[in-house]
Amino acid sequence: MRLLALTAAVLLARAPAPEVCGALNVTVSPGPVVDYLEGENATLLCHVSQKRRKDSLLAVRWFFARPDAQEVLMVKMTKLRMVQYYGNFSRSAYRQRLRLLEQRRGTLYTLSVLTLRPADQGHYVCKVQEISKHRNKWTAWSNGSSATEMRVISLKASEDSSFEKKKETWAFFEDLYVYAVLVCCVGILSVLLFTLTIIWQSLFSKRKSRVRHYLVKCPQNSSGETVTSVTSLAPLQPKKGKRRKEKADVPPAVPAKAPIAATFHKPKLLKPQRKVALQGTWNLHSVCGVNAQWRAES
């Protein structure tokens, strides 16, 4: 029996050690780049998944690296959930501003940085290691890491940027105001020109409508023909004067038509008829001349 126990112990001692190069799935959020204002509180989340063993424990470390600098260990949560601070971050000023908590066991860890400063700008790396006991020894089974970049915007820079944005917006609105004023002026001028043209057309049409045409009947000549002439009055004469002139310039009454013989057996009467026709045309010219003279006087 003793020999069997010794051989079993030797075989176990010679057995190969378990593999340590497994990989955990570790992600940090928000990321990969996050912006905060100076004085705000930042919270970084470290998610862990794909553990190899259910009874294993996790050791979480947060590293900080400024631009063009090496990584520095800030804070660590051991497998027994004890928080330890390292380097300059172990001072009371930093310890009050750094908080590492386990939100969900074995899956979610949070790092809070209070009252951010410009010096807190840089890369934050979360490294997780899976640990469990093997032959009464703590052995690392797997590990994983993830990083994010935090940018801290100073209040002066934010104020300057906001002031510049306000300037740009005000300049845009000023230009828009100038364009609106120009458009309004052009519209007002066009409306004024339109009204002036309408008024001018209405006045011109009224002047045209005031001109009236009258037909004046000339007295009949001996041949029985009647002659008419067209007269027009001035547009600016009063109505009373027009009425008086119309009454005063009424042509004389047309005399009764002389009887004409039924038969014309004498050829000698042709000459008097020509004279009568000539006399009628002369009377027509005289009457039209009188009318023209009356129009000129009026």
TrEMBL record:
Function: Peptide Lv enhances L-type voltage-gated calcium channel (L-VGCC) currents in retinal photoreceptors.
UniProt domain Ig-like: residue ranges: 18-154
Top-level taxonomic group: Eukaryota
Locations listed in the record: Cell membrane; Secreted
Name of the protein this chain belongs to: V-set and transmembrane domain-containing protein 4
Main location: membrane
Membrane topology: Single-pass type I membrane protein
InterPro entries on file: Ig-like_dom, Ig-like_dom_sf, Ig-like_fold, Ig_V-set, IgSF_V-set/TM_domain
TM ranges: 176-200
Record Pfam families: V-set
Keyword presence, Nucleus: no
Higher taxonomy: Eukaryota, Metazoa, Chordata, Craniata, Vertebrata
Keywords of the record: Cell membrane, Disulfide bond, Glycoprotein, Immunoglobulin domain, Membrane, Secreted, Signal, Transmembrane, Transmembrane helix
GO CC, any one term: extracellular region
Keyword DNA-binding appears in the UniProt entry: no
